Amino acid sequence: MNKTMNALRQRDRHRFSRLWLLAAGASLTGFGSSVIAQDGPTSVGKPDPALIEDLVVANRILVRYGVLDGMGHVSVRHNLDPNRFLLARSRAPELVTADDILEYDLNGEAVDLKGRSQYSERFIHAEIYRARPDVYSIVHNHSPAVIPFGVSDVPLKPVYHMASHMLEGIPVFEIRDDFGMTDMLVNSPERGRSLVKSLGDGPSVLMRGHGITVTGPAIPHAVGRSIYTQINAELQLKAISLGGTVKYLDPREGQAQLDRGEHRGYSRSWELWKRDALAVMEQETQ
């Protein structure tokens, strides 16, 4: 009888051990999956709320002036680490709020994504920030006014003083050169690096049949340059349509504007644009 009871107890201990090991293994597997799911860059810290506000406002301003519509995006370097940048989750720019802003590293990987969708062309931003330490804000847009200059042999040149940042001309990125026939999107680090080659050390680059990418040393610059590039393109098209010779900005005139601080950092325009954007945002919350 005792032998039988001991055998049963030993069998039950073996069963319990096997069950415990299975449960522990499942728990460890689950833990490993959790780690893998969360594997990625950790935050460098909470960005300046004023910077977040300006980034949200920049989205609204660019929509108001027709530079952005449901597509396009604007970013800014993180104020705590130049190897990080801030960019909204994939959302129409006019709908972007502070809660939509994500932190990214220079590989285009987001911190704490939480299942939210991302802009596929975030690599435009990542690779430019990697290559250009002087750049602190980037706008990618599909402004219809600039498209003709990316698909023709007519260069986009400054016709008025507010476009002095275009003094050296705007190069054209031809994605076919490195990648052949594609969907036209700069949706990988390799395509981002190819775009950077065309951008060089200039402020902007046209993207054939796609749009334009504009950079700046701060958000007001990137926004101002984007708006005035679009206006200049519209004016240039009108001037060309009149026939005759178009008198473009003389390099000396453009340089004089640049020497003045390129419209003094767009501070006057930015103050107006931001005030109007904040007023609209306030109305939306009422």
Output mean pLDDT: 88
The tally of beta strands, per DSSP, is 7
Distance between the termini: 82 Å
Q: What fold name goes in the CATH topology slot of the largest domain? A: L-fuculose-1-phosphate Aldolase
**Helical run tally:** 9
Q: Report the sheet with the most strands, covering strand number, pairing sense and barrel closure.
A: 7 strands, mixed
**So what's the CATH class of the largest domain?**
Alpha Beta
* Topology pattern, helix = H, strand = E: HHEEEHEHEHHEEHHH
Q: Could you name the CATH homologous superfamily of the largest domain?
A: Class II aldolase/adducin N-terminal domain
- What is Rg? 26 Å
| Beta-strand fraction estimate | 5-15%
CATH architectural name of the largest domain: 3-Layer(aba) Sandwich
Can you describe this structure?
- The chain is α+β, with helices and mostly antiparallel strands.
- It has 2 domains: 1-39; 49-285, L-fuculose-1-phosphate Aldolase.
- The protein has 9 helices and 7 strands.
- It has helices at 2-38, 49-64, 122-131, 147-151, 176-179, 189-199, 219-241, 251-259, 267-285, and strands at residues 73-77, 84-88, 101-105, 137-141, 172-173, 204-207, 211-216.
- It has a 7-stranded mixed sheet, with helices on both faces.
- Helix 3 packs across helix 6.
- The longest helix is centred in the first third of the chain and has 37 residues, at 2-38.
- It is globular, with a radius of gyration of 26 Å.
- The model is unreliable at 1-9 and 11-38 (pLDDT under 50).
